[in-house]
Amino acid sequence: MFDVIIVGAGPTGLMLAGELRLHDVRVLVLEKDAEPTVIVRSLGLHVRSIEVMDQRGLLERFLAHGRTYPLGGHFAGIDKPRPDRLDTAHPYILGIPQPVTDRLLAEHAAELGAEIRRGCELVGLTQDDDGVTAELADGTRLRSRYLVGCDGGRSTVRRLLGVGFPGEPASNEWLVGEMEVTEDPATVAAVVAEVRTTHRGFGAGPVGDGVYRVVVPAAGVAEDRTVPPTIEELAQRLRVFAGTDFGVRSPRWLSRFGDATRLAERYRVGRVLMAGDAVHVHPPLGGQGLNLGVQDAFNLGWKLAAEVAGWAPEGLLDSYQAERRPVADDVLNITRVQSELMSLEPGPRAVRRLMAELMDVEEVTRHLIEKITAIGIRYDFGGGHELLGRRMRDVVLKRGRLYELTRDGRGLLLDRTGRLSVAGWADRVDHVVDAGEDLDVPAVLLRPDGHVAWAGDDQQELLGSLPRWFGAATG
């Protein structure tokens, strides 16, 4: 019997597997596809996801396979200078194709001891007071204490649970892929620039070795969007919009994506939970989808591990939905806004001109950047210190960097006073006394996901906060 079965070996499921293995949870990842996908659905990581990788000691691996781009004030195609003093030590975007992200997270999970089985399709599940039974297409039945569906927008787990997925269905669709282009690069660039003055959903750019990533509006929304387009279909749509097909040939991969926007009514039913695209889908504007899923996993992993270990306080696992569903709702709204602003209709164009003026105000641009990069998230922990509920940026300490102290996924009391104690929680919370000047509060208690659970210098207040997140004291 496994502790947790994860359905789906995409970035969300693999990130969750690694988080659970940090706490010795016995994890099995099931993936219906026999081989890892080559489809590049995401092109990179935003700031908060970069911080997450740094917190777990993975960032150097990602930097070695990606390319950094300065973070700017980019919103719905409106470009403004980056504000000064963003609240992060990583003010950049990391360009890295999703198949590479998947591979690096799979390697990390496997190194920690997660078992990943490919070619295993979930077709049924039942649960009782003690656990979940997963039924596979080949008739195999597997048993676990919990199951998490990280199986995408067409989630089998969500369907089997009967969880509603309300929102707006796709009204537009695009064809996307990577392929060789025989047209002269200068001509391609000039044609793309001209077409994009009237069709911002059109694009073609080089990815190396004569291969281009091409995006073009489709003729409509396909009846069966699981059927990939053909190179002939894509070439025909290019001719419609650009007057040329650029000589496209030899596709590496082709796919479809639409602008459906949906949010699951629930993230948990008993011992079954869901994360990533299984609970939220939206257009790719702003590139937030993969990042949102990775951050779901980062929030859920330590909480589910605490349930498995038996020390989770009441309500800890339910705080996953309470914290992450509003974040997803906000992302859906941001993508809706960007979709409207990119319309060529007179009304949205007028609003776009006004938004461009507003973004000349530095605090407006800062607010939008913090939303898209997820560094502005503040979970509702109730009243208290201004840091409460926010993630802690990386700060320099006398003994190194803060994020270097978070590799093991435990809680952390960072204490400048030397007078505080976590006696009774030492098996779950590290206590580091360090008077680094970058920390401008006496002490902070960080959850394993880096969000501030308490700040101050009073031992009794600290003792009131520890049980809320780390359960009862031992010893």
UniProtKB/TrEMBL annotation:
Residues 2-333 form the FAD-binding domain. Its cofactor is FAD. Pfam families: FAD_binding_3, Rng_hyd_C. This is FAD-dependent oxidoreductase. The keyword Flavoprotein applies. InterPro entries: FAD-bd (IPR002938), FAD/NAD-bd_sf (IPR036188), RIFMO-like (IPR050641). Coiled coil: none annotated. Keywords: FAD, Flavoprotein. It comes from Microbispora corallina.
